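TEACHING EXERCISE
Course module: macromolecular assemblies
Task: Read the component lines below, then compare them to the predicted structure of the full complex.
Student: A.B.
Group: 4
Components provided:
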Amino acid sequence: MRTSWKIMAGFLVTLTLTAALAFYADFASRRSLEEAIGHELLILAQETMKRIDLAIYDRIMYVWNNAEQDWILAFIAKSNQSFAALDSPEDFMDRLDRDWISAPEDTPSPLMGEIEDNELSRGVRHINSLLMKYGYSPFPELFITNRYGAVIASSGRTRRYRQDKELWWQTARQQGIALEDIAYHAPSDSYGIAVALRLDDSDGNFLGVVKAIVNVGPLVKASEIAFSRYQSTRIRLLTRDGKIIFRSRPYRFLQDFSDTDLFKRLEGGEGFFIGNEHNVQRFYSYARSTGKEDYTGFGWILLVSTDTDEVLATAEVLHTRIAVVSILLIMAGMVFALVLSRTINRSLAALTAGAERIGKGEFDFRMELAGNDEFGQLAGAFNSMVSNLREVTASRDDLNAEIAERNKAEKALRESENRFRATFEQAAVGIALVSPQGGWLSVNRKLCAIVGYPEERLRQLTFQDITHPDDLDADLEFHRQMLAGEISTYSLEKRYIRLDGSLVWTNLTVSLVRDEDGVPAYFVSVIEDIDQRKKIEQERDRLSLELARKNKELEQIIYVTSHDLRSPLVNVQGFSKELSADIKSLLSLWQNLEISAAIRQQAEPLMNNDIPESLQFIEKGISKMDALLSGLLRLSRLGRASLILEECDMNRLLADIVTITGFQINEAGVEVIVDALPTCLGDREQLNQLFSNLLGNALKYLEPGRPGRIRISGVKDKGRSVYCVSDNGVGIAREHQGKIFEIFHRLNPTASEGEGLGLAIVNRILDHLDGKIWVESEEGKGSSFYVSLPGWTGGNRARIVVAPLAKGEKEK
Amino acid sequence: MIHATSRVFLNHSGSALLKIVIPIALILVALILVRGLPGSEKQPVRIGAILSLSGSGSHLVDVRDAMVMAAEEVNAQGGINNRKIKLIIADSKSSPAEAEKIFLRLEQQKKSPLLYVSTLSSVGMALAPLAARHQVVLMGLVTSAPDFAEQGKYVFRDYTNSQEEIRVAQRILDTLKVRQLGIVHLDDPYGNSVAKLLGQSFAAGGGSVTAVSFANDVKDLTPEIEAVRTMPAVYLVGLVGHIRLAIRQLRQAGYSGHLIAASGAANPKVTEMAEADGVYVAIPLVYNEDFLFARQFKDKYQARFGKPFSHQAANGYGCVKMIAGLLEGNEVSRRNLQFLLSQGFLYSGVQGDYELKAGSQEIIMPLYPARIDQGQLRLNQ
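Instructor-supplied answer key:
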């Protein structure tokens, strides 16, 4: 997970937890607020219920107090006296009661009218009117009976005249007060509780009963003032068994409420809760009537409800604010986290990038994080670390390099050792480690094979022990020079004396290994068995010497032969010429001689033709032989002539040759082109001979009918100067190309003159000048003769005089 | 501050983070908004108020004002079962024909009202048959015509009726102990019924009655006044304008007997008349000062409209509050409303205790004898 995500997640979790805490606090405070409001509403319900109880109690007391006025009591007492005077008050009341009940509703009986209009009834209405307001009658029914139960005064129509059979009357008489729960009272078309009070005279004698229907509704409605705090407050006043007495909304009197869930929650005397009614959440509190003194309260229940939205409006606002603020905080926090994470990421990225760069070895890199925060400090520490790291790394690198070098060296050493061991053991040459004193420290199998000693035996000896005495001094001298540090290595062909006493030629190559202090540790001697080669060389040298001697003898023979043959040849030539002159003289004499025709005829062809022709052949043969002898002589002289090797200006040399042969060139009508030619190391005279021969051959073998063209060019190649003489002549057939440098070989003996020595001489010259010649030719198109000679390096300005030696001698 | 090495990474991560942050924020805000608007999509409860805002019954504009305030109060407390009350107020111009047109037009609308409220007896009497035909409750406010509540089970009166008014008037006349009575009344169902019933009641007590009528558009009541000016007491039945005209002309004619006027005289336009001083009137309670909410509403009304609180205003206010309370927790439908009304109820409103007995169309509103005294109505207890 990226750091930014971690930061964001951390912030989100923190903010979410904070928001959750805020919501929990909001939830807890809401619960506390609900609890407080519940208690508050409960208190209000209790107080309101008390108000209602008190108001009803006041009404009861109002009736009681006003009914016990003296004149009222006197009026009742007078009625009692009248009834007492009757023979049968019971019969009297029954009769009047029947009349009372049977009277039409809109036409009161005479007694009824009399009662309604008597002084006490007017007083009763007055008592009623004192509390009347806005037309509300506090006592829809108010009447008084005497001690016999007969109605003697009424504010309105009563249902019956005789009340003594009624339970309330009997109860009031017996207990002083009778209360009836709220009910509809048809005579007054009203709803209220009934209260009956016993009236006594001053002596406590029972006088009568006053009954009033107390109008409860206005009392309850007026009590709503207790709920002025909340507009949504509503009340229900219920009977003990759940009948609606009053409601602040339209209601039906004594409508059954007991089946509702709300009523079922009204347990105990009082309490509060939050409930839901018609999909609206409301606070509910309830209190039961406890009455006051003689007023028992009937167990009524006052249920108060208030819309939670109104009650908790402040809390809801707080809740919303907390939610909004939480969200804003979360968003702000996320933005802050984003910015922070970006900032941190930048720093981290910079640190990462820096670390990567440093990781790549850029120890000159420096973090540039501003500020004195942890990242700035980290960057500073980082930079310090990098500085230290650079130093440490440098040391480490050195160390690593050293280690690597050592490892490499060790590896190389191991490989070397392995190679050495392999080489040592499997080498085709003998190898030995020899102590500075000459003892064999270690020898390989090959050496043992070469010198014919077992290893163990050989290691007990020194090289001096088995070195041929004739070679020991040289070996020891080298040995000394090496120990003295004068030379670092030496090679020497020497002979060892094998265990069987035979000698073996070896090529010894020695190097010295010194220890760290420069002290000679041991010699490494490589002994190559050259015994066979030595024998071959000795045979070759012998053959070379033999060949040189033979060559010399041959040259001597050629020279002597050619030289000696020239003398008789000269004689033959001289005598031939003399004979020719004699013939001519004889022929002139012959002319003067008289000789028979037959003889003349026979002799004259001989003398005029055959003899001269024979002489001519002889002269030609002599000339040819002379030429041959001259050539052979010249060829033999090449082996005996001294060479003057020097820088040869080939441009000048060729120019001289072309000039000398200008007549032939012009006569042949040949175009001769001489390019710029490199110098070379050679003998000018012989090079002149060489290139004269080549140019002469080119002129000699031109293609008839084709304009001749000869080009002489030259290049430097690998330290040598290579010249080319090319022509567009007849060319050389492939089968002849290998023979043209042989002596006396002629390409076309009948077509050209010559003795077949030109290219042989060229080849001979090049032998002396360390040169080479080869030909590239195509018959009918021309030939190119390439001459390779040592290039002039410029460092050897001295003239080099080389004595004529046989090839074998020179190589030796 | 930093090296630029991490820019790409930062841009990438920043956009990725924003992609997380923004949806979360939007979801949270959406949750709050959704939670903050409960029930906002519910259809309102429409009340068609065909009121006399102009014409002869223009004084009944108080009904409209109070209805608006009541609707506002109910809506502020969540409405009826979380449905707001929407008053569709239309001016009948005190014309029955105009009221009928409005009624029919509203009925033709896709979303017709739950019930209709009308003012003025003549208008209510014209709308009653339409309400019965369309099976929609018509609640008559400031509608005293005796026959109004007999127009079928959908027609209810939320006002005192003529009989109740006459009962109180009779009590006043009994108190005054007069034996001759002149009646000057509007020649319409309301005026005629009152004149008839009062005449019968008064005559039953042994008195004599002289009744004269006038047209709704009367400008001069001289002939009518001349007919009753010798009577010790004159009872005026008509609308506010008529009563004002009659009082003025009676005073101008030097009438010194007792003037008793119908409930229209309780209107401030009458009570504020200097000539109205001493006029008796049978009125419903304007407001019960023992009830806190009644006092509060009276003060709010006067503060808002800058005019005295009238019993017509109390009537309009009480009607809306009563309907809202009746429907609370019950199905909001025309049929159910009629059913609930038919069940009867008790209700303590601004003007006191209302009672609608089961099966009755009359919401009984207590009336009380009062006397105009220096611009104020004084109850005669």
